[in-house]
Amino acid sequence: xxxxxxxxFDFVDxxxxxxxxxxxxxxxxVLGLIAYGIGLDKIQRELARxxxxxxxxxxxxxxxxxxxxxxxxxxxxxxxxxxxxxRKLVVTYYAATFANYVTPLGQAGxxxxxxxxxxxxxxxxxxxxxxxxxTADLLNLLPFFTFAAIGTVVLxxxxxxxxxxxxxxxILVVFAxxxxxxxxxxxxxxxxxxxxxxxxxxxxVRRVRFLSVEDLRERLRELxxxxxxxxxxxxxxxxxxVYSFVGWLFFALPLYAAVEAVGREISIFLVFFIVPxxxxxxxxxxPGGLAGVEAALAGLLGTLGGFSFATGLSIAIVxxxxxxxxxxxxxxxxxxxxxxxx
Length: 342
Hints:
Belongs to the UPF0104 family. This protein is mainly alpha-helical. It has 14 helices and no strands.
């Protein structure tokens, strides 16, 4: 087993493994209770009619989306001076996605771990890796909110939104405004922010042997330098942003495929609203937002799409098979390959 392979699964100690298994178990129980409450027979009938060709199309769309995001990674990495072969980087991205998707709350803050995997599997330093990962994630937020804004505008024009849906739209608007503001303020105050982190972490660092305060100060300095190099190359950022938009488009399309799979129809603009809105449920403390995302999808599809809750949950299940389950399975294969790669 390679050093990178060992590092990739260092995070899966016994306690973490129990949390992962427990998270999946609880999520499946909750999802089963939701399905039971709606009606298992109704859901089974809907799923029995699902067209596997549309499911395959959804899986292919997810694969293209992940590849596009990996390409955005590559573009940002080039700015900090690392040329990683794309075929190798795609495998690393899939493996990191697997770790992110199976870890409870991984979606809420997996950048440090993804950067660690990237630094161990390439020649990039951890600081450069973290700067590239955070930058790529921030770039991915722009298409996220763009698609959500397009869907919201169309919904407002065409329909009368319920109080619950207005609340979701309001949250998306808050995020759309708040995240860029926080990013800009954080960037302009990065030196003071770094000094604050150093002051807070110093008492802890002094108690450990493997890191000194001076080492931490140097790493923060290198991280800031990496961010500055990336920010200075606006052409590369625009190039990466194109791949981010492509990735988000193909990340959303599996929901459209899932609706078609069960023999129903949906507006693509409604998909642009529902996918970002349901993604907010991915912040629930379960692996990949399991159960939370499905429940949110069923509710949104029922409220906005006019589907029954049985049809909405069936669509949600097909969508998650084509997106989440497919990403976990392919990412798991990629992780095994990284483990065995010498």
